[in-house]
Fold this sequence. Notes:
CATH topology of the largest domain: Immunoglobulin-like
Order of helices and strands: EEEEEEEEEEEEEHHEHEEEEEEE
Helix content: under 10%
Number of helices: 3
Number of domains: 3
Radius of gyration: 34 Å
Number of strands: 21
Amino acid sequence: xxxxxxxxxxxxxxxxxxxxxxxxxxxxxxxxxxxxxxxxxxxxxxxxxxxxxxxxxxxxxxxxxxxxxxxxxxxxxxxxxxxxxxxxxxxxxxxxxxxxxxxxxxxxxxxxxxxxxxxxxxxxxxxxxxxxxxxxxxxxxxxxxxxxxxxxxxxxxxxxxxxxxxxxxxxxxxxxxxxxxxxxxxxxxxxxxxxxxxxxxxxxxxxxxxxxxxxxxxxxxxxxxxxxxxxxxxxxxxxxxxxxxxxxxxxxxxxxxxxxxxxxxxxxxxxxxxxxxxxxxxxxxxxxxxxxxxxxxxxxxxxxxxxxxxxxxxxxxxxxxxxxxxxxxxxxxxxxxxxxx
Length: 341
């Protein structure tokens, strides 16, 4: 820029110290709540161009497909926001029943069960629905829960209902699943660590009642036959549960401390107030006549009692502190017969 005053030429060039930018304005249509975002440490040169401009926005609540409108001077253009950019489930497409960021949440009620009571329960509920427009007469979707163990499968369904949009899917595993472990699970693993059952779910619409445990559905999955429900989206994983042997006949886990001493303990879950018994014995190949066992418990755990299974064969001396949190046990073998160990 050149200026002339009183015949004296000032050849100092004057430039703005602010970057140029495209002065376009944005507006979001069909969205109840939305926010335009700006990075806390955004580079000032990021939009220093008259050719393009990049901005971020977050659509928090919308029941119709949001539309982005951009205006630049006398020009205006708009485009619908692609559904795949929205945090939503595509199970129902566009609907006025669900906001676009709604999600189906799941919670396994008990992640550890026993083969004599193999009942699985999962709570499903909706997060993100526009409950201000809730109509008790409207029909919410159904949820079908799948339980898989290798090639074995069982299903159950429930319909989301009520003002909170929740339901509990409940199924019972077949006893034949536990008469023998699945092909890839050894009998020892099944008895000590339990058997893992994977849980998945699908959402589907239904005019009437949700279908119960449905053998026809299962057969179509395995046989690949055509079915109107086959085109639904892929299953979503819920999680897994552990099925332990009969609680009354639960086998014990063995922990070998060294070449002589073996400790056996039950695998069933321990809750506050429970009494747990640990069995201490010598290994089958041990020739030891005496050993010393030192015990230190975790916080909140106390040593209730120390008992000898056969006082004629083993003599035991114990020292326990007043808090009953530590103990030293000296065991001496009285019977010289090695088989009695």
